[in-house]
Specification:
The protein has about 170 residues and is mainly β. It has strands at about 70-75, 75-80, 85-95, 105-115, 120-130, 140-145, 155-165. The strands form two sheets. Strands 1, 2, 3 and 6 form a four-stranded antiparallel sheet that branches.
Length: about 170
């Protein structure tokens, strides 16, 4: 029992008849050809692509340039040495940069102190850094800091109060 209808299907509600279209005044529009079959997909809201997790292949971007080395120095820890014109100085070097400190110099400001506590002079001496100091690491080094014996007469002593550094 088939149906034999003479009307065309127009896709409009209640349509199916061959009457004039109500969309254009005074005439009828020709019927549109049916669209080719498309695979149906469920309607999902589109989301932006999520970045790929670390370690998985993804778009290759060059790594950011490594930050240069940046050393911070701890306060000098002093200890007596066997001679009045020398002392043991321990310094902590912390590299907070992104590259290792490959070489450099530590400079010590050593004060000559008299018997009554008068600061008579400050002498600067230099020694090499304990290089290399890796990025993000801390390294301690104990230096023997000595002045010439004639600069520190009997009754006087030395105190290394300040340490600075330059590095590459």
């Amino acid at each position: 029992m088939g149906s034999s209808g003479g009307g065309e299907r127009t896709g409009e509600p209640g349509g199916g008849g061959g009457g004039p279209s109500s969309t254009s005044p005074g005439g009828s529009e020709p019927p549109q050809p049916p669209e080719p079959n498309k695979p149906s997909r469920p309607n999902k809201p589109s989301r932006p692509a999520e970045p790929s997790p670390p370690g998985s292949p993804g778009p290759s971007t060059p790594p950011p340039p490594a930050a240069p080395a940046s050393l911070t120095l701890g306060a000098p820890q002093r200890a007596a040495a066997g001679k009045r014109w020398c002392e043991q100085v321990t310094v902590e070097f912390r590299n907070t940069g992104g590259s290792p400190a490959r070489s450099g110099t530590a400079t010590f400001a050593t004060h000559i102190i008299g018997a009554l506590g008068v600061d008579w002079a400050t002498i600067r001496t230099s020694q090499p850094l304990p290089a290399p100091i890796a990025a993000g690491s801390t390294r301690s080094e104990t230096y023997t800091v000595c002045l010439e014996s004639w600069r520190v007469p009997l009754g006087m002593r030395v105190e290394t109060r300040d340490v600075s550094a330059v590095w590459e």
